Amino acid sequence: MVLSEKPVLAICYDFDKTLSPDDMQAQGYIQSVKYDVQKFWKESNELATANDMDTNLAYMYMMIQASYGKFYVTKNALMNYGSHVALYEGVKEWFERIRQYGDAHGVTIEHYIISSGLKDMIEGTEMAKAGAFEKIYASSFMYNTEGVACWPAQAINYTNKTQFLFRIQKGILDINDPKVNDYFQPEDIRVPFRNMVYIGDSDTDIPCMSLVNANGGHSIGVYDPIKKDTTKVYRMMQQHRIRYYAEADYRDGSELDTLVKEIIHKTTAHEILERRFVRDKKEALTQ
Question: What is the CATH number of domain 8-21+87-140+154-285?
């Protein structure tokens, strides 16, 4: 692995209620299988409880079961549902705009999704199709020879989300690559935790937020700009899970936009000093 000439700032996002105001499955799919949204989630959670089952595996099972006799669950079908998912203001333009801002200030910006939602739905969004994300880590299906979903391939829950931060940290992005467990010298880490931003909205993001926060990174809680319910972000701040919070408004000049730009400025200044430190340390050790 070759370290970038510019420092890398990895911005990691949850998806549902972070980039989109509602769960992606509840924006077309659940309705298409003739389920009431609340009933679907109630039955899914009851299924998980009754079988000591991961809640994400439960909803994926429910999605397949509920589609029988109605339509086939395929990758293209899920991507099509994803293309209709609502997004918060400014999301579509955010990723490229922030990338360009970082580049202008000497920082390489990389965007990552770490979500319990469905990878294929996220891949159907306009920004994913445009190549906004370095990597999308999300729950996914395995498809049979006819292209129909038949088994879970990945189920991403709130605790195993943290493994992907370590992959991003070391630049070992393949989920099956065991080199993520290798030891790296601090100066060889591709994206130190101090150069990570995690943006999320709820308790399911707490493990990632806490990990980033505890290691000098930047955890940001967001809340819906229309509902303006700050209950969760206040609680996360009170419990030291996040460093900042803002409305989920991704437009140029918003509070969130200003905050991320300030983090970019800090990264620029800090990494100049950090690279000077590494250079001096290596020189001293050779004497």
Answer: 3.40.50.1000
